[in-house]
Each structure stands twice: as C-alpha cells, then as structure tokens.
Write a structure and sequence with these properties.
CATH architecture of the largest domain: 2-Layer Sandwich
CATH class of the largest domain: Alpha Beta
Distance between the termini: 61 Å
Strand content: 25-35%
Number of strands: 6
Shape: elongated
Number of helices: 4
Radius of gyration: 21 Å
CATH topology of the largest domain: YaeB-like fold
Order of helices and strands: HHEHHEEEEE
Number of domains: 2
Length: 127
C-alpha cells in the first residue's frame, strides 16, 4: 500500500470517527461549558447573592446593583492565576466591564458547597 492510499484511508477514518463522536456527544464536543472558567462563571452567575458592606458602598458609588454584576458574568473572564485559595474559601478574581469601565471583581465562595453555596462580592477595583 503506497503513502497516498494510507493518507486517504486515514482521512476517511477521521471523518467517520468525527461524525460518530458528534452524533454521540452533540454540542458538548464543540462548546467549552465544561471548562473550569465556564463552571466558575456559571456558579457565580447563579449564586452571587450577597455583598460585603465595603462592596455595597463601592456599588453605590458606581450606581450599580448586584444584579448588574451577575449579568456581567457572561462576558467576564476569570483570572485563575490571581484567584486565591484558603483552607475554607476561594477568592475569585473576575475581570469584566461594568457601565463601560474595565473592572476587577473579587468574589468569595466557600470550597464546601454543602455548607453554603452562595457567593459574596468582596470588592470592586477599577482596572
């Protein structure tokens, strides 16, 4: 079997395998909803219910509501390098745009979801 024939059979196998994988897994194969950043954003979007008094003051200064912060999570990016972990909490560093300003949010959540699944807005910093 010459090289041209081998390459043709290899390409046919890739096409059949790709089609079978897409048939079995569907859109899960082509989207990134399973990535760590997407899972963190999903958690924060659904559980960000509280803010510290300092963060509340910062929201008032910017004429924002906590719901505005939750809505901005779709276009936000989580900086996993600047995210800090302690024994019981995770301090997520989230970069987003709020009212046209680049903003860094620090959002805290407990590591143990069984204790408390809500996230708390810790601080807001201009970028």
């Amino acid at each position: 079997m010459d090289l041209k024939r081998r390459i043709q059979l290899y390409v046919i196998g890739l096409v059949i395998g790709g089609g079978a994988a897409y048939t079995i897994y569907g859109n899960r194969i082509t989207n990134g909803a399973w990535t760590p950043e997407a899972k963190i954003k999903q958690r924060l979007r659904s559980t960000l219910l509280k803010a510290t008094p300092d963060a509340d003051r910062q929201l008032d200064e910017r004429a924002l509501q906590l719901s505005d912060v939750r809505l901005s999570m779709d276009s936000a990016s989580v900086d996993l390098g600047d995210t800090r972990r302690t024994d019981d909490s995770i301090y997520y560093a989230v970069d987003t745009r709020l009212k046209g300003r680049d903003t860094r949010l620090i959002v805290v959540g407990l590591r143990d979801f069984d204790q408390d699944s809500t996230a708390t807005l810790w601080s807001i910093q201009d970028r």
